Amino acid sequence: MPRPVSDWPSTPRQRPVVLAIRSSDPGRATLPVASSRDAAAARVTPDRSPTATSPVRTCVGCRSRSPATGLLRVVEDAGSLVPDPRRRLPGRGAWLHPDPECLRRAERRGAFPRALRVRGPLAGDALRHYLEPTLKCETVSHLDHESQVDPS
Q1: pLDDT of the residue at 5
Q2: What is the reported pTM?
């Protein structure tokens, strides 16, 4: 059912384009019919900015699609795999979940040479070191001791 003209937004950007005026009875009031550009207006968020969609990439390890923000870009440099967390290094990149299991799967399948379009095996030591879980330091600073409440 078409909307009456009085319900239209006041700004031209949100105003739908009139395609035709329908009238089944010559004496009856006519209403303009809105175009499909109303669907584009529905994609505008309340702050009037278009919805941001992040690029979707495929992990070379598990082959699942994820937003690029959740994946680590990996490039080849002198025969070794180099992590590119800032996504600025030159060259073709492969995408990987920052998970050692995805790295093992990708290496087992030989996915990195194929994704990066290089010949031969690639050394993954730097990438493996980057993905290792960081261990917490066992030493406790003197500030932690002062902030603890004495139970007695």
Answers
A1: 59
A2: 0.56
